[in-house]
Amino acid sequence: MMQKTQKSHSVSIVDDDQAVRDALGNLLDSAGLNVEAFASAEDFVNSDHPKDECCLILDVRLPNMSGLELQRYLSDRVRPVPIIFITGHADAAVREQAMRDGALGFFHKPFDSEALLNAVCSVLK
Questions:
Q1: What are the chain's domains?
Q2: Which residue in 64, 63, 61, 98 sits closest to 83, CA to CA?
Q3: What region does 102 belong to: left with phi over 0, alpha with psi -120 to 50, or beta?
Q4: pLDDT tens-place values along the chain, 125 residues long
Q5: What is the spatial distance between Cα 90 and Cα 49, in angstroms, rounded to a whole number?
Q6: Backbone Cα Rg of the chain
Q7: Do 30 and 55 form a contact (C-beta atoms < 8 A)?
């Protein structure tokens, strides 16, 4: 069972699906985490969050800038950010690329909520 953490950890969600952002936000908030949600990679990049992020939950397929492109952007230009990918499209090559580039997790939608929470908590330790 996932234990509550202090609200000092910050998790950002980048997903173009409002329902996914809301559900993940509620899940992470219930675990005591600070949560910010963004509808696009550009919204995330233009915020202050890339500079101080503890964990990023990132959809693979996003309009304009994909999740993999955002991962590379953060690694090359800002700093590596711990990333857990989520996707509704099973693609082994994309998973392999994300993990090779440093992702700490990769979940297919629909995913087990507790497994995702455990992955986030592992990143934040």
A1: 10-124 (3.40.50.2300)
A2: 98
A3: left
A4: 444 444 567 899 999 999 999 999 999 999 999 999 999 999 999 987 656 668 999 999 999 999 999 999 998 887 778 999 999 987 899 999 999 999 999 999 999 999 999 999 998 88
A5: 28
A6: 13
A7: no
